[in-house]
Design goal:
This protein is mostly helical. It has 14 helices and 2 strands, in the order E-E-H-H-H-H-H-H-H-H-H-H-H-H-H-H. The N and C termini lie close together (about 10 Å). About 40% of the residues are buried.
Length: about 290
């Protein structure tokens, strides 16, 4: 069946059991917040399952969440810091690169996990009713564990380079939330598109590579000409990466309007993605 919209009816009066009628959605519709809240425990268990499966039977476990960005940091420092001599807003390049790689690695991982989440959970989608929107959101939430683990290397790096964050580090949770917003926005779009067009799963790694170079991970946003920065900030990860560096590395320029534009772009991307997801959700069980 291709159910999407639910309607609860009936009751327990006179000993009759409560009846739930499952009906297909019509056109574009917003998800029911009350229903999503009722399934909050499922969101938690789906996310926790993703975390456990990711590192099941691995020798190093969650240490891979640090190894990947750390290895990229060493490579980028050699190539872009030493050879290409790209600027780093006055910060040591290794610290500059790792502060950008922490949110970026989370985002890139969420693109892959959330984009393939509905296809990976095919049997669950086909046989059990629940708000399908929870599946890509759970993959996005699971990645936050990796982000937290990868962040454990930041304090030693900061101390090694003699940099102590100021009070602005208190704004770091805000940029973590913006990273989760951007990951959820892209993940919801890719998950819905991947069900209908299986080519999408092959484009996700390529898309992530292109997206990284459109994000100030290996270079500062100050290299972008001022006339182009507003357009550049429509990439939701621009404000996130610049915000991470501003929170962590003293002397790094504030993201300012870049963060505002990126947050607005991420919000618009998420809202449009949810609308499209709800529009095509009724066909998931038939085509997944």
């Amino acid at each position: 069946m291709a159910e999407s919209l639910r309607h609860a009816g009936g009751g327990t009066a006179a000993g009759r059991p409560e009846v739930t009628v499952i009906q297909p959605s019509r056109g574009f519709a917003w998800p029911d917040p009350a229903e999503l809240w009722r399934y909050r425990e499922l969101l938690y268990f789906l996310a926790w399952r993703d975390v456990k499966v990711r590192y099941k039977q691995t020798a190093l476990g969650a240490a891979w969440a640090v190894i990947q960005p750390a290895a990229q940091m060493l490579l980028f420092t050699a190539l872009f810091g030493r050879l290409a001599r790209l600027p780093s807003d006055g910060a040591p390049y290794a610290l500059f690169a790792y502060a950008g790689l922490v949110p970026w690695t989370y985002f890139a991982g969420a693109l892959h996990q959330a984009g393939n989440s509905l296809v990976t959970n095919r049997q669950l989608v086909e046989k059990v009713w629940f708000p399908r929107l929870l599946v890509p959101l759970a993959s996005t939430a699971a990645g936050l564990v990796d982000l937290l683990v990868a962040s454990l290397l930041l304090p030693p790096l900061l101390l090694w380079h003699g940099r102590v964050p100021g009070v602005r580090i208190a704004a770091l949770p805000l940029f973590v939330a913006l990273a989760a917003l951007a990951a959820a926005a892209a993940g919801v779009w890719l998950a819905a598109l991947n069900v209908r067009y299986r080519d999408v799963r092959y484009t996700i790694p390529f898309l992530a590579q292109l997206w990284m170079f459109a994000t100030p991970v290996v270079y500062p946003a100050s290299l972008v000409p001022p006339a182009w920065r507003a357009l550049y900030a429509l990439n939701p990860m621009v404000g996130v990466v610049e915000g991470f560096r501003w929170c962590l590395i003293p002397g790094t320029p504030a993201p300012g309007s870049l963060a505002v534009i990126s947050a607005a772009a991420g919000t618009a991307l998420l809202l449009s993605g949810v609308l499209y997801f709800q529009r095509v959700e009724r066909t998931f069980a038939d085509v997944v």
